[in-house]
Amino acid sequence: MNDCDPMVLAGKLASQIKKGAFLTVQAGERLNTMTIGWGLTGFIWQLPVFMVAVRDSRYTFELMEAATDFTVSLPYGDQAQALKLCGTKSGRDLDKFAASGLKPAAAQKTLSPVLDFAGLHYECKIRFKAPMDPRLLDAQLEYLYPAKDYHSLYFGEIVACYETD
């Protein structure tokens, strides 16, 4: 396991997230992972942060609202099938870990686990969350929300960042 500076790896994140990454969250006994294709890293409040967007229609939204942290795991190997499954099936109806073969692994600093594969892992403490106000959304982006299921934004302080083999 190699610790890393999340800002140094911004390019690696930008290229991989287009292919998909896993957002994993644990709230009490409930655990879920979902595929994300959007996310940002940067600095705000003098902290390194990872911002993720989760639609309020998703099962993960329920967990994010109850959780204090989350993780993002970017696979280095081929996880195309797991990314597809976790992006098209709901954790309300299916144990995604059993169905995909993904395995959670204990995180260093968060209750929410990372995924046990070679990749880049971010552990994040939720510092701010807010639902999108559709009145403030540029009209040209409305096509992304045909069902009016807007995202909530979660800003997580990156408390650990590392690569695993």
Record keyword descriptors for this entry.
alpha+beta, Pnp Oxidase, Chain A, eight-stranded antiparallel sheet, 10 strands, 18% helix
Structure description:
With 165 residues, the protein is an alpha+beta fold. The chain has a single domain (2-164), classed as Roll (Pnp Oxidase, Chain A), CATH 2.30.110.10. The chain has helices spanning 10-17, 59-66, 80-88, 96-100, and strands at 2-3, 21-27, 30-36, 40-44, 47-55, 69-75, 104-105, 114-115, 119-131, 151-164. Strands 1, 2, 3, 4, 5, 6, 9 and 10 form an eight-stranded antiparallel β-sheet that branches. Strands 7-8 form a two-stranded antiparallel sheet. The longest helix is centred in the middle third of the chain and has 9 residues, at 80-88.
N-to-C span: 7 Å
DSSP strand content: 35-45%
Low-confidence stretches: none
Q: How many discrete structural domains?
A: 1
Summarize the structure.
The chain is an alpha+beta fold. It has a single domain, classed as Pnp Oxidase, Chain A (Roll), CATH 2.30.110.
Itemize the secondary structure elements and their pairings.
Elements: E1 2-3, H1 10-17, E2 21-27, E3 30-36, E4 40-44, E5 47-55, H2 59-66, E6 69-75, H3 80-88, H4 96-100, E7 104-105, E8 114-115, E9 119-131, E10 151-164
